[in-house]
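user: Please supply your own:

assistant:
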Amino acid sequence: MTMLHNSMLHNLGSINLDHFYRVPHLVHPGETLASRSYQVGLGGKGANQSLAMALAGGQVCHWGRLGRQDGWARDRLARAGVDVTYVELVDEPSGHAIIQVDDHGENAIILCPGANHGFTRHHREALCETAKPGDWLLVQNECNALPELLECARQQGLAIAFNPAPMSDTVLALPLEACQLLFVNRGEAAWLAGLPETSDARVLLEGLHERLPNTATVLTLGSEGAWYQSGSERHFQPALPVEPVDTTGAGDTFIGYFMAALQEQRSLPQCLAFAAHAAALGVQRPGAADSIPSRDEVERFLN
């Protein structure tokens, strides 16, 4: 799998404001818990993946919607090198997330979609027309109207990479065979393949291949490493021995760096290694967008 030389990646993705609360443990039902710290930052799977790709040196154009009062978030993406021409400022609340992070680096998240769920048919068609055949479209499951978007992108001749997170039954009804590449974690893979989450990685890969024989898959397994599969081709990337501080955004960092390496026409094992090293650096820092490392840091870590 390669990207055409000079092909742009367009990411129709969520932009959220992340409200982080550091807590001793994730709050229990009926419990009131004081947080040790609070901060607000840029987030949303879409924005994180665009940011990671730009920091990795990739060419990425973000398609998104954001409340007018939160224009600083668009500026933040632009400063990192993301093309924000098609990030629309609107008179609606931005998407936002309330994120608890505990002493073990685990997190629990409440998500409000806000402006991310305001895409209309006009948006989809106008945005698809800005892309040229052979470009890539990256999507997650935090924006609305995905069935129509995937169909529109397919008709436009775009290659589609899909990260079905957060996973839901609506994903099962999508035209997933339109996707060239799927990024899934263990839970998402099991859900798509109809298998127990405890299944061995190879069993999950076989189940995904059975379900989507013409779609390549990247399966990320945290401390168990990551796999790439396309037909009979498989590559494994072992996990790197690091002590996680906060796993929020690790998958997004991985995806952004993987797509940037693919855009540079690196080999698939190199794409996996580049992405895994970036994610390993990111989990050693708190936050989502704030934890994404720079390309220089990742290159130093790789060497």
Q: What stands out?
A: The mean pLDDT is 94. The CA atoms of residues 187 and 197 lie 6 Å apart. The first strand starts at residue 9 and ends at 12. The radius of gyration is 18 Å.
